[in-house]
Design a protein that fits this description.
This protein folds into 2 domains: 3-95, Roll (Nuclear Transport Factor 2, Chain: A), CATH 3.10.450; 100-238, Glutaredoxin, CATH 3.40.30. 40% of the residues lie in helices and 20% in strands. It is an alpha+beta fold and 240 residues long. The strands form 3 sheets. A 5-stranded mixed sheet has the order 7-9-8-10-11, with helices on one face. The chain has a 4-stranded antiparallel sheet with strand order 1-2-3-4, covered by helices on one side. The relative contact order is 0.11.
Length: 240
């Protein structure tokens, strides 16, 4: 078998495989759309490592599974028992990964301490007790630039407080005074608070489900109120 023949055969088989996959995706899309008219627009249909099972992705990062004909759907996590890995969780993590440089920093305010060389972004609700504990540890960290995204998800009072902070002349001072020192948030003039809604929408899209959620310069995402030592460790790793 000549090299040219092998190349042509491989190209033919690849083309057939791609064509079959495309046709199968079309069948699944058509059947699901007809049978589940309230289903959101499907973003992608892809085969999984399990023969005959397909992943259906919608709303950017939501997933369910179906058979080749779209006759049945499954919701839940697909586990690889040999590798002992949660394939669904790994897939969602890839879909919701956030590159630090892609964070919408225009919708955050910035606090700089010391030389500001190390960088950190954090999504916080002003009524979150864990956020307050985190901020008390973060206040002891020097030489850092902190991008604070107000993320009011704990009710209307959180929205109201976030609006007052966002509209303050010195957002950073008002925020830290409230979070670290329990100083009441002063009333502020009205301003454009569209950033708050955009933050919530961004969080839903990237599955920021709790506060605080931290992003470091190396794009590492860390949920929860980590302590000072852990913050220092992650800042050092991000700047290597």
């Amino acid at each position: 078998m000549t090299r040219l023949f092998k190349t042509c055969l491989l190209a033919l088989l690849t083309g057939l495989s791609i064509g079959a996959a495309t046709a199968q995706e079309a069948v699944i899309r058509k059947n699901l759309a007809e049978r589940l008219p309230n289903l959101p627009r499907i973003d992608e249909v892809t085969p999984t490592p399990m023969k005959g099972l397909y992943e259906v992705r919608f709303n950017d990062s939501e997933i369910f599974y179906t058979d080749a004909g779209g006759n049945f759907i499954l919701q839940g996590n697909l586990i690889d028992t040999q590798a002992r890995t949660d394939l669904t969780e790994e897939r969602i993590e890839r879909l919701t990964a956030v590159n630090f440089k892609d964070l919408p920093l225009k919708d955050a305010f910035t606090i700089v301490r010391g030389n500001g060389q190390r960088k950190l972004a954090v999504f916080e609700d002003p009524n979150c007790g864990y956020c307050k504990r985190f901020e008390r540890d973060l206040a002891k960290i020097d030489n850092v630039t902190i991008h604070v995204f107000l993320y009011p998800i704990l009710g209307q009072d959180s929205v109201d407080k976030s609006r007052q902070i966002w509209c303050a002349r010195d957002k950073g001072k008002v925020f830290v005074d409230w979070m670290v020192r329990d100083v009441a948030i002063p009333k502020s003039d009205r301003c454009d608070t569209g950033a708050l809604q955009r933050n919530v929408e961004f969080g839903k899209k990237t599955r920021i489900t709790g506060t605080p959620t931290l992003f470091f310069a190396n794009s590492a995402r860390v949920p929860g109120a980590i302590d000072r030592a852990r913050i220092e460790q992650l800042l050092a790793e991000a700047n290597q």
